[in-house]
Specification:
Layout: H1 12-47, H2 51-79, H3 81-99, H4 105-133, H5 136-167, H6 171-191, H7 205-228, H8 233-255, H9 269-299, H10 304-315, H11 321-328, H12 334-353, H13 362-387, H14 395-430, H15 439-450, H16 454-460, H17 466-499
Length: 519
């Protein structure tokens, strides 16, 4: 059995193929997130569906992705990073091909969950395998390229999706990601070497099941709350069940000999800060990748291609600034760079809140660029900080914990923000003074309007004009941006406080250098 200790240095060509395989996998993941977000209006027109079913197109992927990352990391450490990576990319590509032929919205939601599972397997094992192939400065450069690949997917994913939808239809989005996934699989099959954690034990299944169950119930409870009511039996039951499963997860992890998530690590301020840093971009950036296309297409009246072009302003800074942030961290404290970036993003959110629907596209470019520039600064430092938390032998676990925090945080943030926007929209419709609009009608039409389904909402509320509905949506969106800016500002201050604390030189994991010292 190959182990990390017995691996000899690979040739530069072989390592380049491994890096290319993991970069391709990293590229697939943002494409799988941003592409369907642009396609939701086209999917709704083709397959129809309730607001809850349409919301699951994105949330099923994120929930499965985030809920399975730690298990995937443990499996990769025990059974082999290459084996799990190839299996993950195979599952991802097969699901993508099946999605391109999905006959209905239910199949689409289920297959998106399967696709998220494949992503989880590929990401955890791919990052762990990369940590075995590179060390020192070369590892930092390799992980910066992974960040760049993510940035390319985020920057051009909406534009690619808009182009494909305009010329060939929404199903072509999934065919394109399947092709990229198969290319990553072939490159890894040729060059990636097998590696394992020689001390890996069995998977913590009780922890995995309670964690995934809590995440699932909480997400479902949030998504259906705007329609059934926050105080309804369904909402309270789902959210209460999530709380019970979370308590069970904490109890299980405290008693496990080798838990999936070592809760004692959170006693280290720097470790807690890194996990908060992983989740912070969700509320300032990631949720906008879903909300803005719905606004641009459904409320502003842009085509899918025009919406994709607008999204480039938000994501394009990811192509350059993460690498520059990594270079700047050689002289400037990482904590300061991360906090300043988040504060810039918060300023961009407040600026965006002043842009009501109907304004010229040029008025949106400034705030979108500012948000993208701000979030790009911590984005370039997150992976490097996270991978140094544990020894290289347990890189799969480190990648699993960090990326679970990041992806599960993104999934939860998307569910929370969708629920808030739906609630704000229902309240805005009720308070808009539209004659004849009752509470029940507003509760029924609000979730559709929150998804950008202006025409459907107008059908449900024939007494309201489209201008009145767009104004109600704009009021709700503005209040949501106030909430996001507040969360982002608070995150910046907490991260600055946590990352300034050095980790003790000797711990049960590995020493993480003080984040406020030049690296």
């Amino acid at each position: 059995m190959d182990t990390n200790h017995r691996m000899k240095p690979a040739s530069p060509a072989r390592r380049a193929f491994v890096l290319a395989a993991v970069c391709l996998a990293a590229l697939c993941m943002p494409l799988s997130f941003t592409g369907p977000a642009i396609a939701i209006p086209a999917i709704a027109a083709d397959l129809h569906g309730t607001p809850l079913a349409l919301a699951w197109i994105t949330n099923a992927f994120m929930l499965s992705f985030g809920g399975c990352l730690m298990v995937a990391g443990a499996l990769a450490d025990r059974y082999g990073r290459k084996r799990v990576f190839l299996l993950g990319m195979g599952v991802f590509s097969a699901a993508a091909l099946a999605l391109s032929a999905a006959p209905g919205i239910l199949w689409l939601d289920v297959l998106r969950a399967v696709q998220g599972l494949g992503c989880a397997m590929a990401l955890s094992s791919g990052l762990a395998a990369l940590a075995q192939e590179f060390d020192g400065p070369s590892r930092a450069r390799a992980f910066s390229l992974i960040g760049t690949a993510f940035g390319v997917g985020l920057a051009f994913g909406p534009f690619l999706a808009g182009t494909l939808i305009t010329h060939t239809g929404w199903r072509a989005i999934f065919i394109a990601t399947a092709v990229a996934g198969l290319a990553a699989l072939l490159a890894a099959a040729r060059a990636m070497r097998e590696s394992r954690d020689p001390q890996a034990q069995g998977v913590d299944w009780p922890g995995a099941l309670t964690f995934t169950g809590a995440l699932s119930l909480f997400t479902y409870g949030l998504l259906q709350a705007p329609n059934s009511g926050w105080g309804s039996a369904a909402s309270l039951g789902l959210l209460g069940g999530a709380a019970l499963l979370l308590a069970a997860f904490i109890r299980v992890e405290r008693r496990a000999a080798r838990p999936m998530l070592d809760l004692s690590l959170f006693r280290l301020p720097a470790f807690a800060g890194v996990q908060l840093l992983a989740a912070a971009p969700a509320f300032s950036f990631v949720v906008l990748l879903v909300l803005l296309p719905a606004r641009f297409i459904g409320i502003e009246g842009y085509s899918a291609l025009e919406a994709g072009r607008m999204m480039i302003a938000l994501s394009a800074p990811m192509l350059v600034l993460p690498v520059l942030a990594g270079m700047a961290a050689q002289r400037i404290a990482a904590a300061h760079i991360c906090a300043c970036g988040l504060l810039l993003a918060a300023g961009g959110l407040l600026w965006l809140s002043s842009c009501a629907p109907g304004q010229s596209p040029a008025s949106l470019l400034g705030p979108l660029l500012l948000i993208g520039c701000g979030i790009s600064l911590p984005w370039g430092l997150m992976d490097g900080l996270a991978i140094s938390v544990v020894p290289v032998e347990r890189a799969g676990m480190a990648a699993g914990i960090f990326n679970t925090t990041r992806v599960a945080g993104e999934g939860l943030a998307l569910a929370i923000v969708s629920a808030l926007l739906g609630t704000f929209t229902v309240a805005a419709l009720g308070g808009a003074g539209i004659a004849g609009v009752g509470t029940a009608q507003a509760a029924h039409a609000g979730p559709f309007l929150a998804l950008g389904e202006l025409r459907h909402a107008a059908t449900l509320l024939p007494q309201a004009g489209t201008a009145e509905l767009a104004q109600a949506y704009g009021n709700a969106f503005r209040h949501l941006l106030y909430v996001l800016a507040s969360i982002t500002t608070a995150s910046a201050l907490l991260i600055l406080a946590f990352l300034r604390h050095p980790v003790p030189a000797a711990t049960d994991t590995a020493a993480l250098p003080a984040c406020d010292a030049p690296s």
